């Protein structure tokens, strides 16, 4: 039996199995086996591996990257054309877009790259319809827009989520807060710091046994699922394999490094863009507005683009820092844009040029992050959105 057939068999068994306390251990075991098989499916088998494919390798530019993912003919190309003014071929037939089409918009001073990806189909994670190349590009994005036809959103939404999950993309989730440490002896030491709705000691042991792990310390610091534990174990296993392969020849190491970057779990925010709202009633539109992470639009008529842009900005979690040359007014037209988790003065200097950090004596900051305006700060000071900074060199 082929690997794809085995994966389909396990997925069918999981679909048949009722979810309750009695079957949670069995389902956890099936999920672990499924994760192992999916890893085997894309593990290099020797020889020269294929590249990303012509037209899929797009250089990352700007302050953030957003990818449009969806089934064929849902309006991704029309959305890119009308948002960014970039020509992406539009037609009444499916698979009009065959390569990645980039575009750029400027919003609130930030330069944001948009990628119109070819339509994916069911089975994309297994390589159908160049699905692996499409999903590989989606993994590099800071935000994913799943574009759906408003007349059939739920079916398409579940299928696309399933394809992305199969390639290690976790949508609108945080990395699991699980402590995992393998050891030589002592068995499984299982600790929880909060109540668990799904995992217990037996479930954890059965999942670890599938990976032939019989001695480890496991600490659950949040309410975790079997999928969360499998993600942590798989990530640890890949890191171990990568460190071992680094001692081998450089070509072997590079192959495994590419594998690691390809199937390591990534946690990406996602917005569901429900297109073609000009074909539904006002009552249906009111219901759609209440769905989490959703924005209804009409790409053809350019309806509700303002809400979409504002939501994109919120989900990107970007911070704008304005510069002030000595003796001059601040430049409010071209901010330096940083991700929310990297907003220190040091991060600001590195974004402009690494040599700035060596020359920095201190910085003067105006804004919400300081008590006094201006305030003298060092390189570890954390800035907030729309702060103004002046660098003083040695």
TrEMBL record:
Which PROSITE patterns did the record assign? G_OBG, GTP1_OBG, TGS
GTP-binding listed as a keyword: yes
Alphabetically ordered keywords of this record: GTP-binding, Nucleotide-binding
User: Which Gene3D superfamilies has this protein been placed in?
Assistant: 3.10.20.30, 6.10.140.1070, P-loop containing nucleotide triphosphate hydrolases
Q: Which InterPro entries does this entry report, sorted A to Z? A: Beta-grasp_dom_sf, DRG, G_OBG, GTP-bd, GTP-binding_2, GTP1-OBG_CS, P-loop_NTPase, Small_GTP-bd
OBG-type G domain location: 64-317
Mind telling me which Pfam families this protein's record contains? Answer: MMR_HSR1, MMR_HSR1_Xtn, TGS
Q: Which GO terms describe its molecular function?
A: GTP binding; GTPase activity
Give residue ranges for domain TGS. 317-393
**What is the protein name stated in its UniProt record?**
Developmentally regulated GTP binding protein 1
Biological source species: Esox lucius
Its gene name is: DRG1
């Amino acid at each position: 039996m082929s690997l794809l057939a085995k994966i389909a068999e396990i997925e069918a068994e999981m679909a048949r199995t009722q979810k309750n306390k009695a079957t949670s251990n069995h389902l956890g075991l099936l999920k672990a086996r499924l994760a192992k098989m999916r890893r085997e499916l894309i593990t290099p088998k020797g020889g020269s591996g294929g590249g990303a494919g012509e037209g899929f390798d797009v250089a990352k530019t700007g302050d953030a990257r957003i990818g449009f993912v969806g089934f064929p003919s849902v309006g991704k190309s029309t959305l890119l054309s009308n948002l960014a003014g970039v020509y992406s071929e539009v037609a009444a037939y499916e698979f009009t877009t065959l390569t990645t089409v980039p575009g750029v918009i400027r919003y609130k001073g930030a330069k944001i790259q948009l990628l119109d990806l070819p339509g994916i189909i069911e089975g994309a994670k297994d390589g159908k319809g160049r699905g692996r190349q499409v999903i590989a590009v989606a993994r590099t994005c800071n935000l994913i827009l799943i574009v759906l036809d408003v007349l059939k959103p739920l079916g398409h939404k579940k299928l696309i989520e399933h394809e992305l999950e199969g390639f290690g993309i976790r949508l609108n989730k945080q990395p699991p807060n699980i402590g995992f440490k393998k050891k030589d002896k002592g068995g499984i030491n299982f600790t929880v710091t909060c109540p668990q709705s799904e995992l217990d000691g037996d479930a954890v042991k059965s999942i670890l046994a599938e990976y032939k792990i019989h001695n480890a310390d496991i600490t659950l610091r949040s309410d975790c699922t079997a999928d969360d534990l499998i993600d942590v174990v798989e990530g640890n296993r890949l890191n171990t394999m990568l460190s071992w392969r680094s001692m081998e020849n450089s070509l072997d190491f590079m192959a495994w490094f590419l594998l690691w970057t390809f199937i390591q779990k990534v946690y990406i925010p996602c917005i569901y863009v429900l297109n073609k709202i000009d074909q539904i009633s006002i009552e249906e539109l009111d219901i759609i507005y209440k769905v989490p992470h959703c924005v209804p639009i009409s790409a053809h008529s350019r309806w509700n683009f303002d809400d979409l842009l504002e939501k994109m900005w919120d989900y990107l979690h970007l911070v704008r820092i304005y510069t002030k040359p000595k003796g001059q007014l601040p430049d409010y037209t071209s901010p330096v844009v940083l991700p929310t988790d990297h907003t220190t003065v040091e991060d600001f200097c590195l974004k402009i040029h690494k040599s700035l950090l060596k020359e920095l004596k201190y910085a003067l900051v105006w804004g919400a992050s300081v008590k006094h305006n201006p305030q003298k700060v060092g390189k570890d000071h954390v800035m907030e959105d729309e702060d103004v900074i002046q660098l003083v060199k040695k």
